[in-house]
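Aim 2, interim progress. The first record below pairs a target sequence with its C-alpha cells.
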Amino acid sequence: MAPGPMNRGKTGVLHVHSTYSRDGRDPPEKLREFALARGIGFVGLTDHAEDLSPDRFERLADHCRAVSDDRVLILPGLEYRFAGHDGLHLLAIGLRRWIAPATPAEFAREVPAAAGFTIMAHPVLHRYRIPDEVAAAIDAIEVWNAAYNTRYLPDPRALRLLGRVRRRRPEVVGIAGLDQHDSRNDRETRVVLFDPDAPDPLAELRAGRFYNRGRTMRFSSRGAFGPLALAGLTVLRGCLDAANAAHERLSPLLAARAGRRGGAEPSP
C-alpha cells in the first residue's frame, strides 16, 4: 500500500481522449465538467498523434489553456504508435510543442524534453515487451488500464514488467490510466497526489509522490506488491478474465434466446 496520507491529495485522471481524437466523444469543455463533478483536479489528455497536425495540436493546446483554471487543469498530450511495433503505444502528457517521432528510438530522444510525463500504455498489447531505448527514457508504465484490464483489478504481468524496469531505473513509476474515450463511462481509476497544493502535478507524478486508486484497491507509485500479494492478484486476475470471457461467449446466446422469446406468437 502507498505510504503517506491517504485522505488528502489532488486527484487526477490520465490517458483520456477528447474530440481531437477520431474516437473521442468529449470536447475539453465537457472533460472539465466531468472533472468538476467528480472532484478531479487535473486531466492528462492523450489524443491520437496520427489524428493531429502541427496546427491542430496548437489548437488543442490553446483549447486546454482556455478551459483550465485553479480548479481543473486540462493537460494536452498525445498517444504515439509506430510502424512495425504493433501494440506499442507511448503517451506524452503535458506536451509543450508538436513533435512527430516515427520510431520508439525517436520518441525516447525527443519526447522527454518536450513533455512533462511519459508512459508506456497497456503493456498487454505489446505482450509485455519494452524496447531498451524506451525503458531507458520513460517515466512510467501503465500497470492498470481500466479499459483493457477492467476497472476492478490491475495487471499483474504489467506490475512484474514494472519491477524488472525498476531494477535498472528505480525512478520509473507505475500508473493507473482510464483510457477513456467517453466520459459517460467513468471506469474510476485515479492518481492521487500526496500534496494537494502541488503547483505542478506532473512533477509530482515523476517524483512518485502519489498513489493509484481504483474501485477495489489502491497502491503506491512503486507498484510494490509482495510475492504473496502478487500471486494472489494473479489468481484473482485469472478468475476475472475467465468470468469476462464466459460472459462474452454467453451474451450472444442469451440475447438470441431472448429475441426468440420476444418474437414468439402468444398462446391461443
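The second target in this work package is listed in the same format:
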Amino acid sequence: MISMSNKFIKIFLSGIIAAAIMSLLIAISPVLGFPRLAVWQIISSVLKTSLVIGWSAHFAIGVIFAFVYFYLKKSFKIFSGIFGGLIFGFGIFLGVQAFTFLFFKNSFEILFILGSLIGHLVFGGILGYLIKKEN
C-alpha cells in the first residue's frame, strides 16, 4: 500500500513528466509540420513577465491537472488507464479551445488546433499511464 505522501509525490511527478513530454512535443512541432505554439511564451506574454514564470506556470498547470485527473479517476471509472487519460486530455483540449476563442478571438487555424489536440491527448495519455494504479 502506498502512503499518502508517496501518492502525492507520484501524482506531482506525473504532472511534471506529462508537462515535460508535452513541452518536448511543442519544441519539435515544427519538425512534425505544425506551427510552434509555446505555451510558456504565451503565459509570460499575457502576464507581462519573464519566461521563467511562463515555464513555471506551465508546469504548475500540468501538476494541477494531474491532481484533477487523479480525483476524477477515483470517482468515475471512465477515466481509468490510458484511454481515460485520453478522454481527460480531450476535455482539457476543449477547455483550451473555448478559452482561446473567448479571450483571444483567434482565427480558425487548423494546424494550431490539431497540434493542440495532439499535445493534450499526449498529456492526458501520459497521465493515464502514470497514474493508472493509484487509488
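The mean pLDDT is 88. This observation will shape the mutagenesis plan for the next reporting period.
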